[in-house]
Design goal:
The complex is a heterodimer of chains A (243) and B (218). Chain A is an alpha/beta fold and 243 residues long. Helix content of chain A is 35%, strand content 24%. In chain A, helix 3 crosses helix 4 (120-133). The two termini of chain A are 33 Å apart. Chain B is an all-alpha fold and 218 residues long. Chain B folds into 2 domains: 3-82, Winged helix-like DNA-binding domain superfamily/Winged helix DNA-binding domain (Arc Repressor Mutant, subunit A, Orthogonal Bundle); 94-187. Chain B contains 9 helices and 2 strands. Classes of the chains: A alpha/beta (243), B mainly alpha (218). Chain A binds chain B through residues 44, 190, 205-207, 209-212, 215, 217, 224-227, 230-231, 233, 236-237, 240, 243, and chain B through 79, 83-84, 86-88, 115-116, 118-119, 121-130, 133, 165-166, 168-169, 172-173, 176, 179-180. The complex binds adenosine-5'-triphosphate and magnesium ion (MG).
Chain lengths: 243, 218
């Protein structure tokens, strides 16, 4: 199956600031995420992971290079088209969860669907399914301030996964979760990718990165290594024997 | 296997006598792997037979012969630094010993070494995770209320897999720690004995204190 990627970063660089204070947060990064694929990004603090994710989600513009989502160059889009793309195709889990305090869990999750024109009742029903998938259906009517950090995080994940998102971007989505819940979230994300979405996951936890098909290592804004297309156990043994 | 490689790595720095190799090996790996002189000489004899080391000149006044690397031996050391340690049939410790030696032998690209090992370990972790997925999917295929022996076996297997997962994760965290630790070390002002004594006791690396504690207790 030769398809064009859902997400393409083509030689992307991002410089924050100017002159002496300039920080090269990303430096010539090229990365593809295909349908059905989950890619994890690892790297030390400050290595450019969030910058990469923000560029992929059209929340920030590259200094040079191209960001292409589902065939469209994000840099060349009108603001209107960009907003529509973010609503329909992209699910985003932010490092800080970004929930709206005046809305319940279910309303937070339903919001992107309503913005996209779905009837409220239908949107809420879909939102409930999404909350169920991350194991917090019983919290549907709670407000964010009455939830623990880990619960808020799961609402944010449910919101990112709701509807038929083609590309899910997640920045440390398991940060505040215990090991069981963290693994449950990875299962949901994995299932979504197996069902045809593309996923890009930033994490510090190797155990969670290992759910991805490919792990990319960033250092100082540069991709320094990748686990590549995961080799079969046999080919791992072969390469070890060749050493 | 790693004694062999460890001795080769030490000889890459300079020619050494057997007894010297033994004490260097032990002090640089924090005494985690004590060797006896017999082991060292047997290993040296094998290395010489395989053309990886040779005598550096004749015996000195005390009858000791220093060994040095051949071109082939040098290439073997380079291969060891460049490749991740195979999980298959080596003790886990080889990764630790290799790193301890890499830090003390000049001219090794440690950042590269750490990254190569981390990528290899993450691949291993991906394989384990895939096994977990397959196993737990299979467990769910059973009748929901079935508590048969098959299900217990799958649970047992899952717990074993979790253990391997956490062990691999610990290794990666250790490698992350090594990387930041070395980065901090290299950005420090050039080390002089004066500065070192000026820094407080709490600034000392825990490994350093652990190590001296271990020595003292032996
Ligand atoms: N708006 C900004 N202005 C100036 N510098 C910035 C800005 N955003 C990020 N940076 C810098 O760019 C670099 C990469 O930052 P980024 O947030 O992408 O790192 P990260 O890998 O996500 O780190 P963490 O793991 O701590 O979340 C850092 O040096 C950071 O200080
Ligand atoms: Mg970040």
């Amino acid at each position: 199956m030769t398809t064009s990627p859902i997400l393409l970063l083509d030689n992307v660089s991002r410089v924050h600031g100017h002159d002496e204070t300039a920080v090269r947060a990303l430096d010539g990064v090229t990365l593809e995420v295909h349908a059905g694929e989950l890619v994890a990004v690892m790297g030390p603090s400050g290595s450019g992971k969030s910058t990469l994710l923000n560029l992929a989600g059209g929340l920030d513009q590259p200094t040079s290079g191209r960001v292409v989502v589902e065939g469209s160059d994000v840099g060349a889009m009108s603001l209107r088209d960009l907003a529509a793309l973010r609503r329909r195709s992209l699910g985003f889990v932010f490092q800080d969860f970004n929930l709206i305090p005046s809305l319940t869990a279910a309303e937070n999750v339903a919001l992107p669907l309503e913005l996209d024109g779905l009837r409220v009742g239908k949107a809420l029903r879909i939102a409930l399914d999404s909350l169920e998938a991350v194991g917090i259906a019983e919290l549907a009517d709670r407000y964010p301030e009455h939830m623990s950090g880990g619960q808020q995080q799961r609402v944010a994940i449910a919101r990112a996964l709701v509807g038929n998102r083609r590309l899910v971007l997640a920045d440390e989505p398991t940060g505040a979760l215990d090991s069981q819940t963290g693994e449950a979230v990875l299962r949901v994300l994995r299932a979504r990718c197996d069902a045809g979405a593309g996923g890009l996951l930033v994490t510090h936890e190797a155990r969670h990165a290992a759910w991805a098909d490919r792990v990319v290592f960033l250092r100082d804004g540069v991709i320094v290594d990748t686990t590549g297309t995961p080799p079969s156990a046999e080919s791992l043994l072969d390469s070890a024997a060749a050493v | 296997m790693s004694i062999r490689r460890g001795l080769l790595a030490l000889l890459a720095q300079e020619p050494m006598y057997g007894a010297q190799l033994r004490s260097e090996f032990e002090s640089r790996t924090g005494g985690t792997w004590p060797l006896n002189v017999g082991q060292v000489y047997t290993t040296l004899a094998r290395l010489e037979r395989d053309g990886l080391v040779e005598g550096a000149g004749g015996a000195d006044a005390e009858g000791r012969i220093a060994y040095r690397l051949t071109g082939q031996g040098r290439a073997e050391v380079q291969r060891w630094w460049a490749a991740p340690v195979d999980r298959g049939d080596t003790p886990r410790d080889e990764r630790v010993i290799k790193l301890a030696l890499a830090v003390t032998v000049p001219g090794v690209d440690i950042q590269r070494l750490v990254q190569t090992q981390r990528t290899a370990t993450l691949r291993h972790l991906q394989d384990l995770t895939k096994l977990k997925r397959v196993t737990s999917d299979a467990a769910e295929q059973h009748t929901p209320d079935g508590r048969g022996p098959g299900q217990r076996n799958e649970l047992a297997w899952l717990l074993v897999l979790d253990n391997l997962v956490y062990a691999a994760e610990a290794e990666i965290r250790w490698l992350d720690h090594v990387e930041t630790r070395l980065a901090r070390e290299s950005t420090r002002a050039p080390k002089t004995p004066h500065r070192d004594t000026a820094t407080s006791q709490t600034d000392r690396s825990p490994s350093q204190t652990d190590r001296s504690a271990k020595r003292a207790s032996r």
